[in-house]
Each structure stands twice: as C-alpha cells, then as structure tokens.
Amino acid sequence: MSDAKPKLFQPLTLQRLTLPNRLVVSPMCMYSSHDGLANDFHLVHLGQFALASPGLIFTEAASVSPEGRISPEDLGLWADEHIVPLGRITDFIHGHGGLVGVQLAHAGRKASTYAPWRGKGAVDQQHSGWGVIGPDDQAFSPDFPTPSAMSVDDIHRVTQDFVAAAQRADMAGFDVVEVHAAHGYLLHQFMSPLSNSRTDDYGGSFENRIRFLMEVVKAVRGGWPMHKPLFVRISATDWAEGGWDLPQSVQLATLLSRHGVDVLDVSSGGLTTQQQITAGPGYQVPFASAIKHDVSNMHVMAVGMIQSPEQAETILQNDDADLIALARPFLGDPHWVWHAAQELGVEPELAAQYGRGTRLD
C-alpha cells in the first residue's frame, strides 16, 4: 500500500451526489413487510448500517406492483401509502450523514413464492398467493407458478409502474434508484433467450429482448431527477448454454451508458435451474472488469463473495470496478466498514455515540 488513502475510502461523485467511500450495502430481501409497508424492522435493519458510514445503503428490492412481489412479505413502492414509512428510514439515514438508495423490481414469473424460511415454490391463493406474469408461459420450475404471457399493454403498464415507483422514491427522500434487471426477475426474463420465446417486438433478436429494459430505463430516467444517480443491476451471464452472456452484457452496457445510467451493478445467474455456476471468492468480478474496460463512460459496481478489505481494495486498485457491494458480510457484521478502515490504516468515520468502540485503551 502507498501512503495515499486506500481507494476503498476515497469518494466517488455521481451526478451531484458524492459517496464518501466505495463501500455499498447491497440490496438484501428481508421478507418482513405487510402490504409492502416498511416498518420498525426496516428502520432498525437499515439504520444500523448508517451508524457505520458506508458510502451508500440500498434497501431490499421494492416491488413496483403487488403482482411483482417475490413473496407476500416483500417491500413495495406501488402505492402512495408506502412513501411515509420509507421516508422515516431515509430521514434517519440522512440524519446520520448517510446516503440511501432503493432497488425497484418486478419478479415476473418468480413472483408469488414463499420466503425462504416459510416454504418452497408457489404460494397458493389460500395463503395470499396470486397470478403471475412473464414474457411467455414458461414457469421457472415445476413448483413455481405458471405465468400468463404479457400483452404489449401489460408491458407498457409495468413500465409506468417503474416510473411511478421512482417518483415515489424521490418523494420518500431516496438519493439513488436502481432498476433490477438481474437474478431471473421480470426484466432479465425478457433479456434471456432461455425465458423469452416471444415472436413480437419484445422477443427473438438481441434488440428485441432488451427492448423492455431499455424502455423502462428511459422512462425512469425521465421521471427521476436528473441530478440523482440511476443504477441498473444485471446478471452478466445465465451460466447456462444458449442464455444471456457476457458479450451481450457488454453490448447492453454500452447502450445503457448512452441513456443516463450512472452505475451498472454486475451480478450473475438466477434465471434458470440449469445454471452451472463456478463460485468462489470474487467470482463475478471478471464480469464487472470486462464491462468496465469496454464501456469507459460508465461506473461499475462489483458484487459477490467479496469477503475481506484487502480483496475489495485490490479490485479497486486493479481498476476492475469503481464500487464494492457487500451483502452477507454486512449481515454478519453491520460495522464491517469500521473494521475495514482499521485494517487498511484509515481512521474510521462513525457516529459519535459509537466512538468508544474503536478505542484500544
């Protein structure tokens, strides 16, 4: 390490927003809402991260419509009633010097399923399940719901749902929105040939398969304040033969960069039960790196089994990514930022009430 501050703790400016460091709390589903409403759990869960000063804190995926929830307990932004409870959280985070984003999502054919600890597969109507939609009538797996193929009117309606959710996010005080087009959810379902057998303008060719996502991004960018950053999360590969892959992701990233996307959040997988993932420390970083080096005018965020401060710093020093998103490490240690700072020789920034926790005397 040189005498300069580690890159992990250098600021990054996106539009008019300056992140104080490059560490991001990744979106993590908590399955703890009722009717999509944030509650005390979300305030405590997300608020704890603000006390340790990461660069940016994301909520879990917030569904843009009731039918788009993964589970009945998902967070939502489909109604004005969701604004005030979420505003309570953004106020708390801002009051402690933090920045906060919300991930906007629609689960498509992977909707109406049980939270992991409540069961598996489709939730039936007796337990508050509902009918789901997708690019066609292919189910994700035999125990998941069978979707109804979306009409063009359905596509336009969901596009407007994303826009309305983004506008509510602005009213709730969020600094960033992220469009979720990864992990086998609706927008990703349209992108991959494995889940999209349509023969109209939204299926077949690469241009047609990305059309829905591009329409959502353009519409959200138009309804989201220009001075606030827009992120998009993608799965860079389906890890399955004949599916979405890295060359298509690079091509998509080039187009997204021309339509006001500030950061591409690069994950992978989730579309098919046939995926063959080769997992290991930082296994998704090469995807982020390839996109970053091919699309020079877009920032890139790496995520996935990034486990130590040295590993995160090396990714940034190698110019493989601009931001580091962590999920499980923050669940295991909400103060991961403090420990990373100490390990890399940086004075940690933390709430005054917690200052004694870093003293050795």
UniProtKB/TrEMBL annotation:
First and last residue of the signal peptide: none
SUPFAM superfamilies the record matches: FMN-linked oxidoreductases
Pfam family of the protein (one): Oxidored_FMN
Cofactor(s) essential for the protein: FMN
Chain ranges of the NADH:flavin oxidoreductase/NADH oxidase N-terminal domain: 7-344
UniProt keyword list: Flavoprotein, FMN, NADP, Oxidoreductase
PANTHER family noted in UniProt: NADPH DEHYDROGENASE C23G7.10C-RELATED
Name of the protein in its database record: NADH:flavin oxidoreductase/NADH oxidase
Record organism: Deinococcus arenicola
